[in-house]
Amino acid sequence: MDNKKTGGLFDYDAKVSFGEVAPLGIQHVVAAIAGIITPGIMVAKAAHLGTHDTTLIIQTSLIMAGIATLVQLFPIFGRFGSRLPVMMGASFACIPILLVIGGQFNIASIFGAQIIGSLVIVLMGFFLKYIRALFPPIVTGTVILSIGFSLFPVAVAYMAGGTGSAHFGSPKNWIVAIVTFVAVFYFNYFAKGLLRLSSILNGMVIGYIVALVLGMVDFNPVKSAGFFQAIVPMHFHAEFHIVPILTLTIVFLVDAVQSIGQFTATTVGAMDRQPTDKELSGALMGKGIINFLGGFFGGIPVGTFGQNVGLVIDTKAINKRILGLSSIILVVAGVVPKISSILQTIPYAVIGGATVSVFSIIAMTGIRTIVSAGLTPINTGIVGLSLATGIGVALTPNCLSGFPSWVTTIFGSSEVILTTIMALVLNIVLNHRPVKKEKPIKQATTQHIS
């Protein structure tokens, strides 16, 4: 009976009730909100912005995340967007280089580079069908697996209270995180119907209540937040300098491959198929056009959100109205600071306890994609060498200290970037070699002497 009631949630275009959609849509917002807000705060600090400008960047990031997700669900002109259930938000892959640009140049240089780099991504999306051969399952699977690995420390840091927190690693944080994790685990494996599908939200509600009892919830942001504030185009201006443009464009290209991996993970994990050329092309073009718009309004570059991809894979709930509701909530939260401030009261320990299982699902989806490509000696070599290089460099502090700082920023700050580059190069070198066909051995003939 539960499956009959919720069956439409597993169909992209099916009509479903608000009661069915609401818990899943809110769940996606709750899972994504910290990831959307935090990068804006980090960039604002690096660029030495004041409170008002920081709030404006947070608002714009929320609005752009909502619009970017809507574009993916409902493509513009049927071309800009993937028509796949993928949540978009501030791109973590871009954050390290944004911090460098903001510190060495200024906030205007970030948005100038973003405007140019986004056009490159639109072009990449337009011509994707001609270069898609560069991204077979063995490459995208390796990227997805590295994304999962890179998110594990994020989940643990959240469980401990959030990096930089004065109470990082405290027993209170771990109690809340473990209670949240256990609640999510219970609903995910022992509940049925909507209770199982909304396991993340249910667990976070329970964790939030425990955090509230332990005095870990701060309502001061809600008290000080206003009720309405519009975003302003070109408030931060835009400056165009060659170094920020080239650097951010390179990161955008690598992040595009990561996005291909995330979209592939969604279709493979939740729809049991590979994405089409049109879907991936539209995904990149939609992402590029929103980043172009974000450059004018002061929004952090958008990317796919791994935790939400994991939610879609875990629940198999792909109905477009689920993330459609999430998008509307994000846009409204961006326009009404009171709402976004309520979301900001969720402790990091709650988010970490809820998302650790989601991140594990992403990693396992990567393994599943790799296995689908076949565990040949060449394929295992591509995966192993790519992960060894990318993760090894990222986990070894100062191993690139002899190079310019931008080299460390791009290649040493994220497991995903170097792993992606290595997977692409190794796949081209090893899987695209001309193979000499062995000549068939001729059968020996016997001559008859007459």
UniProtKB/TrEMBL annotation:
Q: Which Pfam families match?
A: Xan_ur_permease
* Organism field: Loigolactobacillus bifermentans DSM 20003
Enumerate the UniProt keywords alphabetically: Membrane, Transmembrane, Transmembrane helix, Transport
Q: Name one GO molecular function term.
A: xanthine transmembrane transporter activity
Could you identify this protein by its name?
A: Xanthine uracil permease family protein
User: Can you list the GO cellular component terms from the UniProt entry?
Assistant: plasma membrane
Q: What membrane topology term does the record carry?
A: Multi-pass membrane protein
Identify the InterPro entries for this entry.
NCS2, Xan_ur_permease
Q: Where are the transmembrane segments?
A: 25-44, 56-78, 84-101, 108-128, 134-161, 173-191, 197-219, 240-260, 280-302, 346-367, 374-394, 406-430
Q: Which family does it belong to?
A: Belongs to the nucleobase:cation symporter-2 (NCS2) (TC 2.A.40) family.
List locations, semicolon-separated.
Membrane
